[in-house]
Structure prediction request, 196 residues.
Amino acid sequence: NRYDVAESDTPLPSKCSSSRSPRRARICGVDLTEKPEKDWSSAASATLVFQDKAKLRGIPSILRYLARSSTTSSALYGSDPVASTMIDHVLDQSSSISSGVAFQTVCASLAEHLASTTYLVGHSLTIADLAVWGQLFSARQWDSLKKLPAHSNIVRWLDLCSMNETVAQVTSEALANRPGAKRAVAQADNSEKNSK
Prediction:
């Protein structure tokens, strides 16, 4: 997929080949407009291409750019150098969160960390939260693990992140676009009509 950035004073990306980047960009206050790209595959690494042909590859790098370009919050990348460095560490680690054998171990570590903190870094939503939230949100394995009591701290944190107005809107759009979502909504509507 190709994405164009709407008016900005920062260098403008001309396209981005990731299905999740526009949603995360909107959370950061940067508007990307999707345009289908012929050679894009779902296995391709997310890439943000600027008008001068410079490229950023990978979700962590793209999130760093979006946070630095944010029109909505200057705290997305931390409020001081220590917080920014801690956010960088989480961003670097977030790529390792994927379904598979290690997923349970990552979730256990995340639950332990969130037992004593509200957000992953600092006292407000940052791109560290967005990176990990996005990985969990898209991991099929999370649907079964979230029911375990050991992961209640992660569920609390995900709920807190989802209370952000823009995150909530993006989540609802993403859920609506999942395979089978339209059928599930239609079935729910039919059930509601039949119960009346």
Observations:
- Residues 1-20, 33-43 have pLDDT under 50 and may be disordered.
- The radius of gyration is 18 Å.
- DSSP finds nine helices and five strands in the chain.
